[in-house]
Design a protein that fits this description.
By secondary structure, this protein is an alpha+beta fold. The chain has three helices and eight strands. About 13% of the residues have low confidence.
Length: 149
């Protein structure tokens, strides 16, 4: 079996490491200047922790904003915990880095989008040759015009 360097997964891990480093800095020093984050994540991820009413309301994905008020930001190697306000109701969340689909800081026009990971079902077809000439991307930089009003 031929061995290949999996650049997609390597980049995927590196970009999630970037998010981890940014959040660790914010946990220690707060948000500088006008920086703020829109973070969209997969609410069905097995390690995501959120209130049942939030999971019911957002069964697939949810976008949270870290800007004016957030509390208890703690970052570990797997993800981060934060308490955010939902209509005057503070709710704790734990968001695994692997659950993040987009990370955007509109104040500096920076954004990342992570493509959905392939399922185990795709791994079962490993013996079949791939006919797809275009490699699948695990992450990409996104245009911020998507979020502009």
């Amino acid at each position: 079996m031929a061995r290949n360097i999996d650049y997609g997964n390597l980049m995927h891990r590196a970009l999630r490491g970037l998010i981890q480093e940014v959040l660790e800095d914010v946990a220690q020093n707060g948000l500088p200047g006008q920086h703020h984050f829109f973070i969209t994540f997969d609410t069905s991820h097995p390690d995501a922790q959120l209130a049942d009413w939030l999971r019911d309301r957002y069964p697939d994905e949810m976008t949270v904003v870290m800007q004016h008020w957030f509390d208890g930001l703690e970052v570990d190697d797997a993800g981060f915990a934060v308490t955010l306000n939902f209509g005057d109701s503070p709710e704790p969340l734990y968001i695994p880095f692997d659950a993040i689909r987009t990370f955007v800081d509109p104040s500096v026009e920076f954004g990342l989008r992570f493509e959905t990971q392939e399922t185990d079902e795709d791994d079962e077809d490993e013996d079949e040759p791939e006919d797809d000439p275009a490699p699948k991307q695990d992450a990409e930089v996104v245009r911020l015009d998507t979020w502009r009003k």
